[in-house]
Amino acid sequence: MVADGTFRALVARQVDGKQTIAIERLTEADLPEADVLVDIDYSSFNYKDGLGLSGKNRIFRQFPIIPGIDYAGTVARSDSPNFKPGDKVILTGWGVGEGWSGGFSERARVKSEWLVKLPDGMTARQAMAIGTAGLTAMLAVMSLERYGVEKGGDVIVSGAAGGVGSVAVMLLARRGYRVTALTGRPEQAEFLKGLGAAELMDRNLLANPGKPLQAEKWHGAVDTVGGNILANILAAARYDAPIAACGLAASFELPTTVFPFILRGAALLGVDSVQCPVAERTEAWKRLAAEVSEQDLAGLTSEVGLEDLPALAETILAGQVRGRTVVNVRR
């Protein structure tokens, strides 16, 4: 922010029926009305952000809008009794960056009930190195734990080199599971082994339609891609295995049968980080703060500025972004 009260933001507009993306200088009058004003330090770049910026999907539900589905920063002004100026906060989900202006900006105004406080010992940059993707990964792991996935068992993570997948591999490996990383990028083998993957599997082995029931293999799974891959993971689930589904990078369809459910008691667990209750997301952030160190994040994370984001959209949609991408909105 500068002396005239303006701040920089990446803005999506619709001009003559076409979407445009550009960095603009805005004022607080350009932000939606809400009870908390936040000075943003960092955001992150997620698959959904790539969909929005590419203009290929109807992610943006209004124009103009500031994209960016998450951010971390400092409360500048608050009309809520739950937050005061100077509080460090995190925003993820709730349709921000889709139907409400989001994190690719130096300032944001947001509803207080959508915020959580930054856990002790975590910086804003660390929070966004984890970001929505890392939060989703932790929620998926928590869902497997609640179901009672067999300790030390074989667990598969699809889309393993991506944002959700890479954090899930790390979290599961640290809990003692034998993690198979499903990926179409063999060049990321060293990266994934460094996160704790015991084995890599070529995603092409599961990309085509398979038998409705296959040899029992997985005690649990975190799936980020959907489609035939999720169907094949379900078909190879062991008896009573939980499968956490949290993404659709390959497809939103699920071409499966009831056999894994009625013959093996498999459980398909839906994981949602958008409308997730505040109590659960607060618990997830506390666990992330305790379990993921700055050193862990160093090897997972790259940093970009606002001007870099339009070009990154096609890269992330092509599955070529490794780990997590932090957006330094003030760079």
Shape: globular
Low-confidence stretches: none
- Largest β sheet strand count, sense and barrel closure: 7 strands, mixed
Report the radius of gyration as a whole number of Å: 20 Å
CATH superfamily of the largest domain: Medium-chain alcohol dehydrogenases, catalytic domain
> How much beta, percentage-wise?
25-35%
Number of helices: 9
CATH domain topology of the largest domain: Quinone Oxidoreductase, Chain A, domain 1
Q: End-to-end span in angstroms?
A: 12 Å
Could you say how many structural domains there are in total?
2
SS-derived structural category: alpha/beta
- Overall pLDDT: 94
From N to C, what is the helix and strand string? EEEHEEEEHEHEHEEHEHEHHEHE
Helix content: 25-40%
The name of the CATH architecture of the largest domain is Alpha-Beta Complex
Account of the 3D structure:
- There is one protein chain.
- It is built from nine helices and 15 strands.
- With 331 residues, it is α/β, with parallel strands linked by helices.
- Strands 3, 4, 5, 6, 7, 14 and 15 form a seven-stranded mixed sheet that branches.
- Helix 1 (47-54) packs across helix 9 (309-317), helix 2 crosses helix 3 (163-174) and helix 2 crosses helix 7 (278-291).
- The two termini are 12 Å apart.
- The model has no long low-confidence stretch (mean pLDDT 94).
